[in-house]
Amino acid sequence: MDIITFSQQARNYLQNCDPAITGQLIDANLLQWQAKRKHRKTSAWLYETLLRHASRGTGKGDALGKWYQPRTEAADTAPTLYLRDYLAPILFNFNPQQVAATYGKEPKKVWQALGGKKNLKELLAPDGKAPQKKTIKAWKNFVQTICDAAAFFAGDDQYKAFKSALSDAHGDDVNALLVPVELLHEAIPSLDKGLVYNFIKELGYTDYVKPDASLINLCMRAGLVDLKQVQQRMQKKPKTLPKAPKKDKKINYAKVVCPQKFFTAIVTLCKDKGILPYEFDKLMWLVDSGKFIEPDGRLREFKTSKKDFIAQCLVNEAINAEKLRHGKKPKQPLKKPAA
Length: 339
Known about the structure:
- By secondary structure, this protein is mostly helical.
- The protein folds into two domains: 3-37 and 208-325, no CATH class; 40-191, no CATH class.
- The chain has helices at residues 3-17, 23-30, 33-38, 43-55, 83-87, 96-103, 107-114, 116-124, 133-154, 157-168, 174-187, 193-201, 213-221, 227-230, 259-272, 277-289, 306-325; strands spanning 291-293, 299-301.
- It has a two-stranded antiparallel sheet with strand order 1-2.
- A hairpin with a 5-residue loop joins strand 1 and strand 2.
- Helix 6 (96-103) crosses helix 9 (133-154) and helix 10 (157-168) packs antiparallel against helix 11.
- The longest helix is centred in the middle third of the chain and has 22 residues, at 133-154.
- The radius of gyration is 22 Å and the shape is globular.
- The model is unreliable at 333-339 (pLDDT under 50).
């Protein structure tokens, strides 16, 4: 299946999920990069934005607490304290220079300022129960990120090199896109690399995608990328690997695919077909999450299923292949809803 057909099927699938999902709503969400790209990117804003991404790191969800109150959240169900409000006074309203000067690269000092396990109960367990061990572990990793990121944005050499690499990361040189990713991950090793890709993407850089499990599985199951092209090297060869996405829909491709190779492959594919990687990534995220931002800024969730979407794509592909074999015009996939 080619990526243009796959993208069109994704749009049609979303519009069939709910009448409220219109083409205009989809486009508005895909074009969010325009406002993000224009935002004045001060070091304090970048520092806060990175910490917000880090707080929702891989597998954490809201384990560290909610960053702020969504507009859709009822007041009676809201926690007493939000993560941003909790951190702001301790991190000098997210001033990386002051954070670096006060705490240096000593996460213990930040942990003490946060109040350690005792104060975390107010944020994470208002019912009086102690936070789980995995939550404490996630918090300590986050505190390390607080220190590393402050040193990075407060410094001169690394930060300037990163900004310079970002300004050069455009055009057809996909390898140039990897340079700022490596620079940031090297400076902040406690930050998951997938979040580094996402952080840069959400700054409005349209040549980036987040090569996470969701995007990898969607693209691999649709057959957009050859597994041999993006397979990560393993010390031991696995007993079985999928020969074709149709034969094994349940395999977790993220376990056998190298994120960096996948990033290079999917970005190259998008560019070759005239698709903005950011918009393709966002479209797949909408299919997976069903979370849309309304024109008034409110978050609205719809029921979607990437499993159903992929199944429908494969059915349509098989039908069209059969029609072509008999010399007939292929049927348009996923009939659009009536206007």
